[in-house]
Write a structure and sequence with these properties.
5-stranded parallel beta sheet; two-stranded antiparallel sheet; 5 helices; alpha/beta; about 15% strand; about 210 residues; 7 strands
Length: about 210
């Protein structure tokens, strides 16, 4: 199953202590070791281009590798009833960018987590968000939350399959306990009838 980390920089890896804080980088490394996820850059730094981002990865010895960048969607044009066009800024632009990237690139089934210090996402993405304290950067609690998002759904799916298995076993047991008892009684009666017929038949032959 594919797993994706949508990674912001400022407030996640970049903290008041400096750019690409080593403690935050260590936590990201820990997360990648535990989840084997692909890194997708959702930070505005991505607007500098993928080669620039990959150069940063080498320069600061960041863990893993950059798989891709989310597309950019900063505004949308609405048309009023009288034909007047006006440009509206999208508050949830990052959420839409993530949705579009998943639509174009993700392979089903997949899990994903969003590491960000802001909530610039869609409502139905909140369960995928780990909101990082921008004054501290990525920490242990954030890593635990991200691991839970990426891995717990696998566990939940296994639990669902296990529950289905138990249900099937219970149905089997009920079937063999209740229904066949009646059938066995009927079969016993029929067997006794056949046995009586055979006994009478052979007795007549003698």
């Amino acid at each position: 199953m594919e797993k994706y980390i949508f990674l912001d920089f400022d407030g996640v890896l970049n903290t008041p202590k400096g750019k690409f804080d080593q403690k935050a980088i260590g936590k990201l490394r820990r997360l990648l070791e535990r989840c084997d996820a692909k890194v997708i850059i959702s930070s505005t730094w991505r607007l500098q281009g993928v080669e620039y981002i990959r150069q940063l990865w080498k320069e600061y010895h960041l863990p893993g590798e950059v798989t891709d960048l989310t597309p950019s969607c900063n505004s949308i044009t609405f048309c009023s009833a009288d034909g007047t066009k006006e440009c509206q800024c999208l508050h949830e632009a990052k959420g839409l960018e993530i949705v579009e990237w998943l639509r174009l690139n993700a392979k089903e089934p997949y899990h994903y987590v969003i590491l960000d210090d802001e909530e610039d996402i869609l409502f139905n993405q909140r369960e995928h968000l780990v909101k990082v304290d921008g004054s501290k950067g990525l920490d242990k609690a954030d890593v635990r939350a991200a691991i839970q998002i990426l891995n717990t759904k696998e566990i939940s799916q296994m639990k669902r399959w296990f529950a289905l298995y138990i249900l099937m076993v219970m149905v089997f047991m009920a079937y063999f306990y209740w229904y066949p008892e009646k059938e066995i009684n009927n079969m016993n009666r029929r067997a006794l009838m056949y046995q009586e017929c055979l006994r009478n038949h052979f007795h007549w032959q003698k």
